[in-house]
Amino acid sequence: MQQILDFLVKIWDYFASNILTQPAYMIGFIVLLGYILERKPLYESIAGFLKAVIGYMILMVGSGGLVNSFRPILTGLKDRFNLTATVIDPYFGQNAVTEGLEKTFGRTFGDVMLLLLFAFVFNILLVRFQKWTKLRAVFTTGNVQVQQAATAFWILLFCFPKMGRIEVLLVMGVVLGLYWAVGSNMTVRYTQDLTDGGGFAVAHQQMFGIAFVSWLADKFKAREVKAKKKARRLEDIELPGFLKIFNENMVATGILMLFFFGIIMLILGKSYFVGVFAATKGASGLAPNASFLFYIMTTSLGFAVNLTILQLGVRTFVGELTESFTGISDRLLPGSVPGIDVAATFAFGEPNAVTIGFLFGALGQFLAIGALLIFHSPTIIIAGFIPLFFDNAAFGVFANRRAGAKAAMILPFFSGLIQVFGAALISTWIGLSKFGGYLGMFDWDTVWPFFTVLMKILGIAGIVVVVLILVLIPQLEYRHDPKNYFLMVTDYEQYKENMAKKKATK
């Protein structure tokens, strides 16, 4: 019996290491399975698999380029001013958990992977029994699942340090699986609207954030309509004179990033980047005899390059994924959609909304960091590029789509404030700040601190309350519009027709 269990564990480890936690191959696997279930010819199935994998790899090149180019610049601020600080970044957060688990709780990171398994299986079961759960999205972003499983594991151990190993895994497997299913489900309506029936949801670190920002944006629009004002989207704004150059997304992105990161790089100074060059043996940084001006230009304009690459990757794999997922939804998980990386939304809507969301979110973050320094906060936050960009850029895209340019500026700005203040409070309280990192994305600065308070104060009753809240959310969503709730996934054209008729009768 033990040998069988060991064999099954090895299979799971192999699947988790090579497919589940590797988003490109996970997406490719889903596409392959979908085409097989649709009984497509083998060559079409293999071609779809390869196209999906390559497309996602292209997306990751763009995404990785953004992160790798600018993370050293932001963390350089920490070195430049000798700050003992916590970096809000999913990878810094994961490393902090890895370093601190044994020292703080006497647990190992291996349990995190088991937690991921329990939560993922539970997510699938919740969608399979959607007749009762009202859940429609499967979380497939594997690298994000690892990061979240690590932080969630730490949070539960913080709340219940004496809870047994199996109990921790089962309890958090239920809570995390519910969060994945409920959070990605909350984005279905807004993502379908943004992509005109793209057939996917967002499965990332700001799912509740997207739903909340979209809801607030709708309130913005309603107020504008009531005041008989037209909410202008970014794409509707025609700039006069020389400002017309900002109408071109690639040019606007390049200029704004040159200004934004140029200032930071000038503050850090040439010597810092020369030092990085020496420390990395030429892998990054500035060669001693190279031009600092052109280094700034190359680094800043690389933002526009990587963003373009990212959008190309999205266009390459999304079509294959949505088409093939029909086979899975028809045969295994009826009425469901895949939840994928938030970066997929950047290829839809107004491209400048990505840049605007990022910049105003960054402004909010930097003002909040300044406030922490002024008021001598016990934890100083260093902006990580992933929350800085992926949260706020997404909020800009969704807000602009629903309520126009004003919402695309204001809502990411407040998101930036929340990210820093929320991360400072929760990372200090649960003890992750002393290990130098916290996940720091929007949901983990708002929703999860709220869950932590409930579980820490109420004990086991807090777990029950958290579960009940998560179970109740999709039920309320369904009751709001039962006729169209599943239709927006199964037949989007009919859904649009129904909504048009509904709007006309008001």
Automatic annotation (TrEMBL):
<protein>
    <recommendedName>
        <fullName>Ascorbate-specific PTS system EIIC component</fullName>
    </recommendedName>
</protein>
<keyword id="KW-1133">Transmembrane helix</keyword>
<feature type="transmembrane region" description="Helical">
    <location>
        <begin position="202"/>
        <end position="220"/>
    </location>
</feature>
<dbReference type="GO" id="GO:0009401">
    <property type="term" value="P:phosphoenolpyruvate-dependent sugar phosphotransferase system"/>
</dbReference>
<keyword id="KW-0598">Phosphotransferase system</keyword>
<keyword id="KW-0472">Membrane</keyword>
<dbReference type="GO" id="GO:0005886">
    <property type="term" value="C:plasma membrane"/>
</dbReference>
<feature type="transmembrane region" description="Helical">
    <location>
        <begin position="292"/>
        <end position="314"/>
    </location>
</feature>
<comment type="subunit">
    <text>Homodimer.</text>
</comment>
<feature type="transmembrane region" description="Helical">
    <location>
        <begin position="353"/>
        <end position="374"/>
    </location>
</feature>
<keyword id="KW-0762">Sugar transport</keyword>
<keyword id="KW-0813">Transport</keyword>
<feature type="transmembrane region" description="Helical">
    <location>
        <begin position="251"/>
        <end position="272"/>
    </location>
</feature>
<keyword id="KW-0812">Transmembrane</keyword>
<feature type="transmembrane region" description="Helical">
    <location>
        <begin position="410"/>
        <end position="430"/>
    </location>
</feature>
<feature type="transmembrane region" description="Helical">
    <location>
        <begin position="166"/>
        <end position="182"/>
    </location>
</feature>
<comment type="function">
    <text>The phosphoenolpyruvate-dependent sugar phosphotransferase system (sugar PTS), a major carbohydrate active transport system, catalyzes the phosphorylation of incoming sugar substrates concomitantly with their translocation across the cell membrane. The enzyme II UlaABC PTS system is involved in ascorbate transport.</text>
</comment>
<feature type="transmembrane region" description="Helical">
    <location>
        <begin position="15"/>
        <end position="37"/>
    </location>
</feature>
<feature type="transmembrane region" description="Helical">
    <location>
        <begin position="450"/>
        <end position="473"/>
    </location>
</feature>
<comment type="similarity">
    <text>Belongs to the UlaA family.</text>
</comment>
<feature type="transmembrane region" description="Helical">
    <location>
        <begin position="380"/>
        <end position="398"/>
    </location>
</feature>
<feature type="transmembrane region" description="Helical">
    <location>
        <begin position="112"/>
        <end position="129"/>
    </location>
</feature>
<feature type="transmembrane region" description="Helical">
    <location>
        <begin position="49"/>
        <end position="70"/>
    </location>
</feature>
<dbReference type="Pfam" id="PF03611">
    <property type="entry name" value="EIIC-GAT"/>
</dbReference>
<dbReference type="InterPro" id="IPR004703">
    <property type="entry name" value="PTS_sugar-sp_permease"/>
</dbReference>
<dbReference type="InterPro" id="IPR051562">
    <property type="entry name" value="Ascorbate-PTS_EIIC"/>
</dbReference>
<keyword id="KW-1003">Cell membrane</keyword>
